[in-house]
Write a structure and sequence with these properties.
Length: about 120
């Protein structure tokens, strides 16, 4: 998904506060970096482990997606330290939830999964 967030969406309802032009330019750099990382051996190794960073579920490598722990929209960077493998479910939840809702979700799944 490379589509940019539409301005209207960012304004309506206050779901997400993105859409500043300067940030867009910065995003594209970070997105390119993320793309490069996706081709790296580091990433391939990460997904071959097959574990979702968030819910800890085991997934097939092709079911894991690259996720920024701190989203680019919140100032996160495309650096290894900020990039994790997430299952599609967690990834899409994260996309559609407010940051606070996402935090709640993480707390909830950590609770049910317990310690390893
Ligand atoms: Zn997950």
């Amino acid at each position: 998904m490379t589509k940019r967030f539409s301005r209207r969406e960012s304004r309506g309802g206050g779901r997400r506060r993105i859409g500043l032009l300067e940030i867009d330019a910065e995003f594209s750099v970070e997105k390119r970096k993320a793309r490069d990382l996706r081709h790296s051996a580091w990433w391939k190794e990460k997904i071959s482990a097959g574990t979702c960073y968030y819910c800890g579920r085991t997934c097939k490598p092709d079911e894991l997606t690259m996720d920024h722990k701190i989203p680019l929209s919140r100032g996160g960077k495309s650096e290894k330290i900020n990039i994790v493998a997430a299952c599609k479910e967690c990834n899409s939840r994260k996309k559609y939830m407010l940051p606070t809702e996402w935090d709640e979700y993480l707390k909830r799944i950590k609770h049910t999964d317990g310690e390893k």
